[in-house]
């Protein structure tokens, strides 16, 4: 009776009598192909068992080779995915993906045309000198009279908003509008007008206006 044993032999080397070379798909660290030789030895077993042992060994070798190929494919796919991720991130860096912050609008022009009638000219450009597409709001700030005349920025920071106009009730940039303040009741004080862009980007205030006593 015969049985079969598997042992590795470097490709190209001879094999002894009674040894059957079976290709091994795996490679050594040096990249050299190997063969697994099947050696027949005498034991007290049946030929059928020996044949089953040989077939099992060949199947295991083929499965091992398939697993190695699958591992190589997975590594290649991982490398491809990495390269695609790099190219995608590089594409994202082209141009200017972050929109440039909006510049504040220039100060509007305002003056009284009557006791409670305010004429306002909206700014046509922003602080960079670029044309404005539109404005979001127009605010009128009021600050009560004090012993010292405040500057326009103090009126904005310390005062209150007494009149507000929003789109679509605003004319285009550079155009004039009339604000009727007949119903506003406030003691004598100061006023300024501020234009506001989308995103609550407020520009500098207009020149300081005098709000006269309502009794007049």
Key traits:
2 helices, three-stranded antiparallel sheet, alpha+beta, five-stranded antiparallel sheet, 2 domains, 216 residues, Immunoglobulin-like
Summarize the structure.
The protein folds into two domains: 2-92, no CATH class; 109-211, Immunoglobulin-like (Sandwich). 25% of the residues lie in helices and 33% in strands. The protein contains two helices and eleven strands, in the order E-E-E-H-E-E-E-H-E-E-E-E-E.
The overall strand count is 11
The major sheet is characterized as: 5 strands, antiparallel
Give the C-alpha Rg.
44 Å
Task: Name the helicity range.
Answer: 10-25%
Alpha-carbon distance between the termini? 130 Å
CATH class of the largest domain: Mainly Beta
Average pLDDT rating: 76
* Helix and strand pattern: EEEHEEEHEEEEE
Question: Tally the helices: what do you get?
Answer: 2
Low-confidence stretches: 1-20, 28-38
Structural class: alpha+beta
What would the principal axes of the Cα set say about the shape?
rod-shaped
What count of domains describes the coordinates?
2
At CATH level 2, the architecture of the largest domain is Sandwich
């Amino acid at each position: 009776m015969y049985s079969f044993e598997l042992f590795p032999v470097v490709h190209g080397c001879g094999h002894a009598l009674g040894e059957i070379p079976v290709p091994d798909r795996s490679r050594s660290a040096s990249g050299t192909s190997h063969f697994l030789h099947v050696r027949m030895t005498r034991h007290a077993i049946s030929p059928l068992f020996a044949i089953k042992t040989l077939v099992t060994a060949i199947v295991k070798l083929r499965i091992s080779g398939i697993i190695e190929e699958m591992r190589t494919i997975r590594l290649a796919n991982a490398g491809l995915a990495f390269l695609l991720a790099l190219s995608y991130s590089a594409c994202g860096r082209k141009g200017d993906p972050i929109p440039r912050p909006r510049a504040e609008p220039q100060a509007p022009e305002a003056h009284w045309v009557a006791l409670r009638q305010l004429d306002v000219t909206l700014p046509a450009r922003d602080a960079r000198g670029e044309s404005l597409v539109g404005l979001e709001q127009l605010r009128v700030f009021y600050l009560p009279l004090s012993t010292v005349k405040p500057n326009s920025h103090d009126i904005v920071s310390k005062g209150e908003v007494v009149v507000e106009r929003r789109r679509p009730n605003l004319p285009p940039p550079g155009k004039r509008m009339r604000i009727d303040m007949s119903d506003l009741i406030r003691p004598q004080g100061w006023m300024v007008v501020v234009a506001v862009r989308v995103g609550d980007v407020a520009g500098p205030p207009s020149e300081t206006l005098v709000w006269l006593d309502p009794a007049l």
